[in-house]
Amino acid sequence: MIVAVTRAVSPALAECELTHLARDPIDVAKAIADHERYEAALRLLGARVVRAPEEPALPDAVFVEDTALVLDEVAVITRPGAPSRRPESESMVKVLSAYRSLQRIRPPGTLDGGDVLAVGRTIYVGLSSRTNHNGLAQLETLLREWGYEVIPVPVTGCLHLKSAVTQVADNLLLINAHWVRPECFASIDIMTVAPSEPAGANALRIGTAVIYPSHHPETAERLDRAGVRVVPVPCIELAKAEGGVTCCSVVFEAEP
Ligand code: CIR
Questions:
Q1: Residue 49's domain spans which residues?
Q2: Could you report the per-residue pLDDT of 170-198, keeping only the tens digit for each?
């Protein structure tokens, strides 16, 4: 069974952290409606949606991806780089302990789940404004016993590694080559985003399909031509908060 942990949009979303975008008014009611469409897309693709407890006082709490990394063997509770986001982790501990044994990133390490791209046994970790060398080193130590290779990847111009690159098929990455160097992923095929859609590299792969923002139609067309099934979702309001489709869930395999 595929589990997708999500969390309700906070009514305080408009006070979210922002790094690269100017603050643009957010229609929270529309963000909530879009988020419901996103959860419906997860269910359509066979995932069981498990909602983490609401955190109405934490503006960015809907972006659960940043709080945890779940692998087959273990879940790692992260220590988000933005101090305002650190209280989001505690309620994820309760949810994820039902599925995995837990490890934690500890101070002075910081690591956002949005900076972690797992491709098989290789874990690419973005060195962004949110994830530091200490966090990366802790992750490497935690995962060594299971034979994962942790590879640091410099990221510029965007918030997280997965703003710049995500996996869309078995051996295919979707990438914005201005934000991350394609050479970092030497053995994997690369498809670039449409030039007019620089934020289009964030796709959420579920099985053989991807959940993908409906506001990036040209890149969606490229994915379609490459044989990737695209399930479009509206997510412009969450994008104003610098969120994408991977950020709104933590997806993993679990026993039924
Ligand atoms: C933040 O700046 O932390 C939020 N406003 C957006 C987080 C998006 N998360 C992600 O891409 N994994």
A1: 2-253
A2: 999 999 999 999 999 988 999 999 999 99
